[in-house]
Design goal:
EC number: 3.4.24.70
Strand content: 5-15%
Radius of gyration: 25 Å
Family: Belongs to the peptidase M3 family.
Oligomer: single chain
Shape: globular
Number of strands: 7
Cofactor: Zn(2+)
Keywords: Hydrolase, Metal-binding, Metalloprotease, Protease, Signal, Zinc
CATH topology of one domain: Neurolysin, domain 3
Structural class: mainly alpha
Distance between the termini: 40 Å
Largest sheet: 5 strands, mixed
CATH architecture of one domain: Orthogonal Bundle
Pfam families: Peptidase_M3, TOP_N
Helix content: 40-55%
CATH class of one domain: Mainly Alpha
């Protein structure tokens, strides 16, 4: 996700470093309220370093992804770190009294060199990892940790921030400026700035240890994803769709196993295999490989790392006076306290596991009728759920998949962006914008009515060796209004679809199509920003997923289905009866989807509210799930040993509940659109969406922003209706 350098530097959650990069600002004159930021001599003397060069070319400069050299990374990071430390020292030691302009704004303007370097680092970390990079990463991570500690422990700098926050000028600032000042103060105070002596040093030491452990955790998961591949022969392809077989053949060939079929250890490969394969023993093997990532013993096992991370996190927040890590984490989120997040999840959990029991009964009945002579196991769930879907709704997921072409889905997203956000996407095919891999494509984004340039959108859609699993969005440069030259936003979406044979269209599942729309929602959030200050981009974690979850709703609108969900062979639009079947089955399998997610969210919260002394992560996961009544026919979406959201960084730690918190808002907002005269394309609702939910980013308190959009707070009942669950009051 996007973050400014001060946010990166001052936050304990340095999970993904592929955040925003911002073009250098113009020189600024020194005045009583401004600071002349020094230029690092190291940067000046490093003109040969590919990563330190100013971004040049069209669109007000773009990253030189075609020229980036990994060996330049350590020196580039060191130069950027030195420059920003010097800038912060200059802010901290100036003689003029602290003001919003010479302290808070000056900090916002700092770190331009690191802003350029971080996107390169992020690409190697997430999109193009290698053994060579991971060795370099091991050198960089401790330096980044020390860098962040030097900033948050700069007492003179914190005193100036505090002076602005608690001074008379604060009352004269605009609401957005007050929010920026408060966020800046909190980021220092909540990350050790108020500590003294040994406690302050211990805090810094813990930060350094955690940074290394987070990196090691992520690298271990990546190792297991790359090392456990199931190769099939032609005799083992029973039940698999032709499109999947072709993709598996291409994957095997890419791995030097021509003539075989590779089931890689990623969700995009695992899930369709478990859905369609008639080879039960192979389903078990593929399932085991996937859900055992990080839990295979040996040097790449993550259990000891998890235990150490939990102990260090608990000790660190203890230094700040908090009872547990989750209490610290949620203090500045919408939920405010772990009890509030737990209350929401515990309202939904009973309905979710009750629905699982119903789903399993339906599956077992079909297995018995087929004479399978089995008891439903986790590796059977997707397979028999598909049979139930066909039996109950006459809906075949593979039939639906024939209408879900990746390129057409992308066109559908552009259509929605045009209707709802007034954006127009134009492909850039002249090579003027460098990319880091041949799979990456770029589009120019403009305002439809005025033609005004908004930004660029990069898409890296396919899985490959060295790319982390899952789907994510980020920015290489975010919106801000601190310079005379308004920047061009550089947004990026990244997925792990299985690439088909050359010339073959890529077909995806309905779930994957929703994820594609979801991540595009993040990109639209970046592109819609109208905030003045970099730190105010983004938002609190249990709110920022709301905008992206909401965008998923447009996939199932009649306008999208009728125009873009066309048959891969005939080009015919999806027939009306199939559309109706999809709508009829909208709440199908919600027991599985909700329970696998909630199990992960609940374990995350319980891990971070429990005394971690002598904790055994595997045993904790097993015993806690048993006590919760977790159905044995499925597992957590992210088992603890590969739960990268919470252990390869701190972005979602004690915060995975946030998807459901945001889903409550999503369900409520969805009902608002459904009730509007123009439905999901209602112009008045679209305007309110852009004005109150997307453009303001984190410049307005999320609860206030949502009330401005909806006129009231959301409640859990909309979510329960969405999932076809009984309302909480009906379950008492």
């Amino acid at each position: 996700m996007q973050k400014t350098l001060i946010a990166v530097a001052c936050s304990a959650a340095l999970a993904v470093l592929s955040g925003c990069g911002q073009a250098p600002s113009k020189s600024e004159e020194t005045s009583q309220n401004q600071v002349q930021t020094p230029t690092s001599s190291t940067v000046e003397q490093s003109t040969s370093n590919s990563l330190l060069a100013d971004w040049t070319g069209p669109f007000k400069g773009v990253p030189a992804f075609d020229k980036m050299n990994m060996v330049d990374l350590p020196a580039a990071m060191e130069a950027g770190i030195a420059e920003q430390l010097a800038e912060f020292d200059a802010i901290a030691t100036q003689q003029a009294p602290a003001t919003f302009e010479n302290t808070i704004v000056a900090m916002e303007k700092s770190g331009k060199t690191l802003d350029r370097v971080y996107p390169y680092y992020g690409i190697w970390r997430s999109n193009m990892s290698s053994a060579e990079f991971r060795e370099i990463q091991g050198q960089i991570v401790p330096k980044l940790s020390a860098f962040r500690s030097k900033i948050t422990q700069n007492e003179a700098l914190f005193q100036r921030i505090e002076a602005v926050y608690k001074g008379e000028e604060f009352a004269t600032l605009t609401p957005a400026q007050q929010r920026l000042t408060q966020i800046s103060y909190d980021r220092f105070a909540r990350n050790g700035a108020t500590l003294e002596g040994e406690a302050k040093q211990r805090y810094a030491d813990i930060q350094a240890q955690l940074a290394e452990l987070h990196t090691q955790f992520g690298n271990n998961v990546l190792h297991d994803e790359q090392s456990y591949v199931v190769y099939l022969t032609k005799e083992q392809l029973g039940g698999l769709p032709e499109s999947f077989i072709k993709a598996a053949s291409s994957a095997a060939e890419a791995k030097g196993e021509a003539g075989k079929y590779a089931i890689t250890n990623t969700r995009s490969s695992m899930s369709p295999f478990l859905t369609y394969s008639t080879e039960r023993e192979l389903r078990e093997q593929v399932w085991t490989n996937y859900y055992s990532r990080g839990d295979n013993g040996g040097e790449h096992d993550n259990n000891a790392i998890i235990a150490e991370i939990l102990k260090l996190r608990d000790e660190r927040v203890g230094l700040l006076g908090y009872d547990n890590y989750a209490e610290w984490r949620l203090e500045d989120r919408m939920a405010k306290h772990p009890d509030n997040a737990m209350t929401l999840m515990e309202q939904v959990w009973p309905a979710a596991i009750a629905r699982v029991a119903e789903e399993v009964a339906d599956m077992q009945a079909i297995a018995d009728a087929d004479g399978a002579d089995i008891t439903i196991k986790p590796w059977d769930y997707r397979f028999y759920a598909e049979k139930v879907r066909q039996a109950k709704y006459d809906l075949d997921s593979n039939e639906v998949k024939q209408y879900l072409q990746l390129d057409k889905l992308r066109e559908a997203m552009f259509y929605v962006a045009g209707r709802v956000f007034n954006f127009e996407f134009t492909p850039i095919t002249d090579g003027s914008v460098p990319v880091f891999h041949d799979d990456v494509a770029v589009w120019q984004v403009t305002q439809k009515q005025t033609g005004e340039l908004v930004g660029l959108w990069y898409l890296d859609p396919f899985a490959r060796e060295g790319k982390r699993s899952g789907a994510w969005a980020t920015t290489y440069r975010s919106h801000e209004l601190l310079t005379d030259d308004k920047p061009v936003v550089l947004a990026s979406n990244n997925s792990n679809f299985v690439k088909g044979s050359p010339g073959e269209p890529v077909l995806v599942s309905w779930d994957d199509a929703e994820t594609f729309f979801h991540e595009f929602g993040h990109a639209l959030h970046y592109l819609s920003s109208d905030v003045a200050y970099p730190t105010l981009n983004g938002g609190v974690r249990d709110y920022t997923e709301f905008q992206s979850q909401l965008l998923e709703r447009w996939l199932s609108t009649d306008e999208v289905i009728s125009q873009f969900l066309t048959h891969v062979d005939t080009g015919a639009p999806m027939p009306a009866d199939l559309q109706q079947k999809i709508k009829n089955a909208a709440t199908f399998n919600q027991g599985f989807a909700t329970t696998e997610y909630l199990a992960s969210a609940l374990i995350d919260m319980k891990l971070h509210t429990t005394d971690p002394t002598d904790i055994d992560p595997d045993a904790f996961e097993r015993d806690t799930l048993t006590a919760m009544g977790m159905p044995t026919e499925l597992v957590m979406r992210h088992r603890t040993p590969h739960f990268g959201h919470i252990f390869s960084g701190e972005g979602y730690s004690a915060g995975y509940y946030g998807y459901m918190w945001a889903e409550v808002l999503t369900s409520d907002a969805g009902e608002a659109f459904a009730e509007a005269p123009g439905g999901y394309y209602d112009e008045a609702m679209a305007e309110k969406l852009r004005q109150h939910l997307f453009s303001v980013q984190n410049s307005v308190d999320p609860a206030e922003a949502y009330r401005a959009f909806r006129g009231a707070d959301a409640n859990v009942e909309a979510l329960m209706r969405d999932r076809g669950f009984p309302l909480p009051s009906a379950m008492k």
